[in-house]
């Protein structure tokens, strides 16, 4: 039995960008012909469902819990790691990649972990644009800290209102249905 991860081939630094460049585009007039199924209602699932709905796709979003607001993004008190290097402590995409692979006891698919580390720079900016209330310093800049044994400050934590409630409000607005009482 051969296991195939379906990861693009080539150098790890460029394989995902090359793969993204070679993908076929969907004509905006045809987007309503496609229904996208999103499994998971946390920050990633909620943001994905809301963004695809805004782009014009039909989106069905499913969760395993009794309510979408019970996702781990709400219950967890950790944060999101990103290699933004705000404190000039030497953080980089490769360092986040290595720490993530090492923290997972070298059992993760390295190609996917590298892609995650590379786009982590944009995930924080996208989340802020979607209304996720991250903790901020007195000067107004996003605050980050060292968390989970990391030697650099790369964890961005939500403050105040639960972060995924912002995504769910966007998702409900674009869904066209009221859904269950969340």
Summarize this, please?
This protein has 182 residues and is mainly alpha-helical. The protein contains six helices and five strands, in the order αβαβαβααββα.
Number of DSSP E strands: 5
What's the quaternary structure here?
A: single chain
Tally of helical runs? 6
Task: Classify the secondary structure makeup into a structural class.
Answer: mainly alpha
Major beta sheet, strand line-up: 3-5-4
| Average pLDDT figure | 81
Shape annotation: globular
Order of helices and strands: HEHEHEHHEEH
Which regions are unreliable across 5 or more consecutive residues at pLDDT < 50? 178-182
Measured as a percent range, the helix fraction is: 25-40%
Largest sheet: 3 strands, antiparallel
The count of domains is 2
Give the percentage of residues in beta strands.
5-15%
Query: Gyration radius, to the nearest Å?
Result: 18 Å
Distance between the termini: 44 Å
